Amino acid sequence: MSRVEKPELLRELVRLKSDLAALSGKQFVGGDSLTGALTISPDSSDLTVSLPALAGSQKRYIMSFTATAGSVALASLFPFYSIDNSNVLGFAVPPWSGSPMVGLVVQRLGTSGAVTSWWLQFLNADGTNTAHTAYFKYVISGTDSGSVSFTLQ
């Protein structure tokens, strides 16, 4: 006679142990490793956004990543931007800075087939009514490399 009063708990523990063993190995999706590829351009910035000299002015873009293999790819976006300086990685605005001049909002829209999309919103929050130029740079980590396009909304 078993000491376990609830046998369903024992079955659940056995299932979890099996799942943990499967996760301990290298993960693959469609033959591609989850620790796959980086997509980054050689340019110092990938998108230049001119914001007029009006506090609250904004521009919105849809950024689309198309996987090279033409099939579903897992993709994570690492966005960087700078203000009035095209050397984005050298002068990136840290995410915690709360920059008072220009803000960037990024929202993942989802994946459809081989395309993953994000919504980008650049906002001129400078109360001195000064025009600014935001420079955007992306790094995408995913299961496949690919190409990126921007569409002004």
Helix content bin: 10-25%
- Distance between the amino and carboxyl termini: 68 Å
Radius of gyration using CA atoms only: 22 Å
* Helix count, DSSP H or I runs of 4 or more residues: 1
The tally of domains stands at 1
Low-confidence stretches: none
N-to-C series of helices and strands: HEEEEEEEEEE
Question: Mean pLDDT score, rounded?
Answer: 82
The share of residues in extended strands comes to over 45%
Number of strands: 10
Q: Give me the secondary-structure category.
A: mainly beta
The biggest sheet, with number of strands, parallel, antiparallel or mixed sense and barrel status, is: 4 strands, antiparallel
Shape: elongated
Description:
The protein has one helix spanning about 5-25, and strands at about 30, 30-35, 35-40, 45-50, 60-65, 75-85, 100-110, 115-125, 130-140, 145-150. The protein is elongated, with a radius of gyration of 22 Å. The longest helix is centred in the first third of the chain and has 18 residues, at about 5-25. It has one domain (about 30-150). The mean pLDDT is about 80. It contains one helix and ten strands. By secondary structure, the chain is mostly beta strands.
